[in-house]
């Protein structure tokens, strides 16, 4: 490294660096730059305003709320008309001169020191001041501010405060990453940012701020003159008075569902909107009570002590004010719950208002009760799974014993039933079972340990394997084999599987009709795995996603492995692409392929493709599909399983196809045993 001695200074206690004055006191503004602004006369033309704006920008870190104060001056740069220096511009100019006459000294924080952040917002600008405490005095570190864009000016006050915090975290990232930052504000922003139900920009800001160590505290006494000026600049919106909060609530119940709309407004104008969907059935009156109770809980979370609640339900308003008698036993529980929650506040007033004055809350309630809730960025969307009032629980008696009880007792304590025949049976059976971690397992001959299930657990396993995501609505024998393969056992497994299949509506509705052949069947054998493939086209199906309405099917004669792909058109090029991608690249070049006499299979280019790879192409006899019986059998399997899974949703066959294939490939086949 080379240094120029003429540009180096060593052993000094202070001096000029990057346009600022550094000393043991901290970072000070350059007196020459400050004096240049103080000595300036009021601008008389646009170029002088541009010069003034440039000088102010260089000293912006020393100027509290610069964006708000300089708004009249900077506005002159955007005007296309003739230049006019107004009285507002002169007042702002004099404020800057006064501030730069005694500019604040900015300090640097020590390692591990907690820093304080003060926020201020207005209708046109946001500002922040980073402060540290030393010997009981508050010393500024940095002042930042910026003008709000047109869209940002329409934000709610709470969103503007969050935007100011977000802007400070991005601009002063180095301080946020290395220190704990205490945000001093009387705005209830902390409780809002920590809600998991946020949506839109508030959720994005909450996630971005979560990487920093930020705490929120109420604003205390001001211990610095520069900070007092910073706070007083925006006092109308910088303070949050402790007076009554206003709340509008409404409930809605219809055939699609039920929900509530809540609008909570603080005395300073901060507004919270909540669209609440109920996960349980309610009447209209119950929905109105739920909206009122949830709104009161929200107000309590925000720290409100006095609440004036407006509702368009005259019945609810009069009943909670003891003007009407509550006769319904269920609504009486809501009444008592309201009286209990009323003790959380100093004062709660519930008043009736016409629906025309409660339109916004009514819209939120209708939005929540619809099938598809909205995604408004400034609205909190969430679901209330259970009612606000305690529910009566009815205990369900469960069987105290099952077929496993005697076996478990014998393994643990060698206890036997009193009946000699039953005792002999238990001793014989217990040799095949093991008790591991309190669970009974059965030892098989060629299978791992099978977990033993009681009847409720067995019903659940049967339902999941037969109808679940991997279910294929298979027959009783195959269903029992899949249960054993999954690692479960109970004595009546085969009987229960047969009874379950008999009761399955889809299996009975789309089951195969057994037709015995008049002649002896002849099987077509393959010499080795993936040597002989049968290929066929299924369709047309109902139009599915991607304009697909055909299905190309290929099955291996040896392993019965099936490959399928939905197609929009059945051209020779698509069939050739399917054979290359789904057969050759996965299983190698086959010995032969069997197909019918369709145009896509008779195509010259497709046959040249097979001939170049040495694949023999065999065609079935005309009007004799039995010649490619394995492909026809695969078609029947796919069609049957698709019918059982789809029901009436015929257009979803393309989306359900992977699940059908998965179920088929995971099912033991008797033909391959």
Automatic annotation (TrEMBL):
Signal peptide: none annotated. Coiled coil: none annotated. CDD domains: RNase_HI_like (cd09279). Pfam families: Integrase_H2C2, RT_RNaseH_2, rve, RVT_3. Residues 523-673 form the Integrase catalytic domain. It comes from the Eukaryota. GO terms for molecular function: nucleic acid binding; RNA-DNA hybrid ribonuclease activity. GO terms for biological process: DNA integration. Residues 241-370 form the RNase H type-1 domain. This is Pol polyprotein. It comes from Cajanus cajan. The lineage of its organism: Eukaryota, Viridiplantae, Streptophyta, Embryophyta, Tracheophyta.
């Amino acid at each position: 490294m080379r240094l120029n001695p003429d540009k180096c200074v060593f052993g000094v206690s202070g001096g000029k660096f990057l346009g600022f004055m550094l000393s043991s006191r901290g970072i000070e503004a350059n007196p020459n730059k400050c004096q240049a602004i103080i000595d300036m006369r009021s601008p008389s033309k646009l170029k002088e305003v541009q010069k003034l704006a440039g000088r102010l920008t260089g000293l912006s870190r020393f100027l509290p709320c610069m964006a708000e104060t300089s708004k009249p001056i900077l506005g002159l740069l955007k005007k296309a008309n003739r230049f006019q220096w107004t009285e507002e511009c002169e007042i702002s100019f004099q404020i800057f001169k006064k501030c730069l006459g005694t500019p604040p000294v900015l300090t640097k924080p020590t390692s591990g020191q907690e820093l304080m952040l003060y926020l201020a917002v207005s209708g046109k600008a946001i500002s922040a001041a980073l402060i540290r405490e030393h010997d009981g005095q508050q010393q500024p570190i940095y002042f930042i501010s910026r003008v709000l864009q047109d869209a940002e000016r329409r934000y709610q006050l709470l969103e503007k405060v969050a935007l100011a915090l977000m802007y400070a975290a991005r601009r002063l990232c180095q301080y946020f990453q290395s220190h704990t930052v205490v945000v001093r504000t009387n705005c209830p922003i902390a409780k809002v940012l920590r809600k998991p139900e946020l949506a839109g920009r508030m959720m994005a800001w909450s996630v971005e701020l979560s990487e920093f160590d930020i705490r929120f505290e109420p604003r205390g006494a001001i211990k610095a003159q520069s900070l007092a000026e910073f706070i007083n600049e925006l006092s109308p919106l910088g303070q949050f008075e402790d007076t009554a909060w206003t709340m509008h609530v409404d409930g809605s119940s219809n055939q699609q569902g039920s929900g509530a709309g809540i609008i909570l407004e603080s005395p300073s104008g901060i507004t919270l909107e909540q669209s609440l969907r109920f996960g349980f059935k309610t009447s209209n009156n119950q929905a109105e009570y739920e909206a009122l109770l949830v709104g009161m809980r929200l107000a309590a979370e925000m720290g409100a002590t006095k609440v004036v609640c407006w509702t368009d339900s005259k019945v609810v308003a009069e009943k909670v004010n003891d003007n009407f008698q509550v006769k319904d036993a269920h609504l009486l529980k809501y009444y008592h719950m309201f009286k209990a929650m009323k003790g959380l506040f100093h004062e709660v007033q519930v008043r009736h208002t016409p629906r025309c004055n409660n339109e916004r809350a009514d819209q939120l309630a209708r939005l929540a009760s619809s099938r598809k809730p909205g995604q408004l960025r400034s609205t909190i969307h969430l679901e209330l799974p259970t009612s606000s009032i305690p529910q009566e629980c009815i205990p369900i008696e469960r069987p105290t014993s099952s077929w496993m009880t005697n076996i478990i007792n014998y393994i643990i304590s060698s206890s036997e039933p009193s009946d000699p025949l039953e005792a002999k049976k238990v001793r014989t059976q217990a040799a095949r079972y093991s008790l591991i971690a309190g669970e009974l397992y059965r030892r098989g001959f060629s299978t791992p340990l099978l977990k033993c299930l009681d009847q409720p657990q067995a019903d659940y396993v049967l339902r999941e394997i037969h109808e679940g995501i991997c279910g294929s609505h298979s027959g009783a024998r195959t269903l029992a084999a899949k249960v054993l393969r999954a690692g479960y056992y109970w004595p009546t497994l085969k009987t229960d599987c047969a009874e379950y299949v008999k009761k399955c509506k889809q299996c009975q509705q789309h089951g195969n009709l057994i037709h015995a052949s008049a002649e002896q069947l002849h099987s077509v054998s393959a010499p080795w795995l993936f040597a002989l493939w049968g290929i066929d086209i299924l369709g047309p199906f109902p139009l599915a996603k991607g304009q697909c309405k055909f299905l190309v099917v290929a099955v291996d004669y040896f392993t019965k492995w099936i490959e399928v792909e939905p197609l929009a058109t059945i051209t020779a090029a698509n069939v050739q692409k399917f054979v290359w991608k789904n057969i050759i690249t996965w299983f190698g070049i086959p010995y032969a392929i069997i197909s019918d006499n369709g145009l896509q299979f008779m195509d010259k280019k497709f046959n040249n493709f097979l001939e170049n790879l040495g694949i023999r192409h065999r065609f079935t006899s005309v009007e004799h599909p039995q010649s490619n019986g394995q492909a026809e059998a695969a078609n029947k399997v796919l069609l049957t399983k698709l019918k059982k899974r789809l029901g009436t949703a015929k257009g979803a066959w393309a989306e359900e196809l992977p699940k059908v294939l998965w179920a088929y490939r995971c099912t033991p086949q008797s033909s391959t045993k």
